[in-house]
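User: Predict structure, ligand zinc ion.
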Amino acid sequence: MSETVFARRLEALRARFEDLDIDGFLTFHGPNRRYLSGFTGSAGYVLVTARHAVLLTDSRYTEQARQQAPDFEVIQHGDEVWDALSQQVRRAGVKHLGFEPDRVSVDWLGRAGGHLGDVTWVAVLGAVEDLRMIKDEDEIAAIARAQALTEQVLAEVLPMVRPGVREIELAVELEFRMRRRGAPAAAFDFIVASGPRSALPHGVASERAIQPGDLVTFDIGCVVDGYCSDLTRTVVVGEPDQRQREIYDLVRRAQETGLAALRPGRTGREVDAAARDVIAAAGYGDNFGHSLGHGVGLEVHEGPRLSRRSHTVLQPGMVVTVEPGVYIPGWGGVRIEDLVVVRPEGYQNLTSMAKDLLVLG
Ligand code: ZN
Ligand code: ZN
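Assistant: Predicted complex:
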């Protein structure tokens, strides 16, 4: 039998044990659990040691876990995980057990220490997240399917944008169509932000009715086979005025400059700076407060970041958004977001929707 993708991921994690000074690793963060094991249920502990890979879950999920995670030994635990977990930890002879400090509560850690007092708990940040940053072709294909579905649904709903329609109606229509086409979930609460609300970078759809002359920003995404998509387009209702055109063209230029800067070897901050410099040179630097982009995968926000503080070096297989924006309080805003994969020669855009300013209504 050929090695499974999960066996490869387990080996990649184990290869980091020595550097991390651990001989076992524990996670119950859903995306990390799924990435390592294939198990999609909502509860379960993944314990990886030098020789064992164990998935501890409760009676709701043991059957599903056995089907989805054949690389793992599935153990059913009782009301609490501690007895079964300490048995497995002892069996594997684990002395230094890595855990994810950003995924547990203070309460959990206290109880863990109480029940497994004979191991040393070692805080390990990002061990699985680092592996997840570089996608294989199957993962990229799932993200591309999610993005294609997202674009298709947005194209269908845009003709419904006209004065009097409420933001929330458009958001519901988008999600309904995504779900009907087979996406089991939206990737996040959709942003449909019209008129002055488009100046809110995260203006989740409200009851506001669209007015003539509004800019309307759509930021939407869905989940396909566990992987997320993320897409933003800004449209205008009726003929745009000069300032709307200017700001739109500026953001578009910044977005295209950011894309052109993407290639292996560049850092997240270098790509961020390429786009940010375009906006700053036009005098709107203070109106672009967020980072240029983020990784997308099993989670809609993951590594690597394209931001002023990101020293991550881009590598082929990383999937990131490029989404500059200009937001002017009281007036409105524009954001344009594509989802792309870093390739050896630069990047491949997983987004095909046009970026000309769409005049609707
Ligand atoms: Zn987005
Ligand atoms: Zn995004």
